What we know:
Number of helices: 5
Number of strands: 9
Amino acid sequence: MLAAYRPTGKGRVERQVLIVRDHVLAGRSFSSIEELDSAFNAWVPLRRAKSHGTHGEVIGHRAIRDHMALRPLPATPYVVTQRHLRYVGKDCLVAFDANLYSVPARKVRPRQLVEVRATKSQITLHSTVPDANGETLLAIHPRAVGRGACVVDEKHWDGLPDGRNRRTTTGDVPPQPRHQNALGEETAGSLMALLNRAAAVRVEVGRRPLSVYDELTGTRPFTTHPTPEEPS
């Protein structure tokens, strides 16, 4: 790959332009495209009958061999796209090129990495890992024009709270149930399960007076003395 407007980097390709200019266009004028095409078609057999200066073969013979080596085009056309990786927000929106695009809340998690494939007119969002059916496509949107647009398919927000405060994607894993402790406070089910499995909750914590620590350290306990009253 070369930078734009750098013809000296691919001299053999750019040389063909000069050859056509010198042998077909130089010193001539044409009144129509058809007349120009006719002059070019008359010159091509003369050019192909010559030997090439680099490989020494007759240009026409080399062209036939090259054409026979070409393979047929694939049944599915190759789509030229920009490809980028982006994170999914908690509202199941993906930021790309200063615009936001939605993905299905049931298929993504917050901070999940997805692939954005962008053409001039379309944005497709893909998971980086295929699903059970081998599919990666999550969403298709028309590409927004300008900046600051929010392109949303309302069906992607199924399963999220209604209204404006759509704050968390749901994914395929249902939220954990919540329980109440003895004080009536809610605690997450996963936290309670962890505490119930921990051996530490079954260990009885003993109490010892501060004098024990004084004996161990050889210090006397700190005592306060009453302040004498000031004379009236």
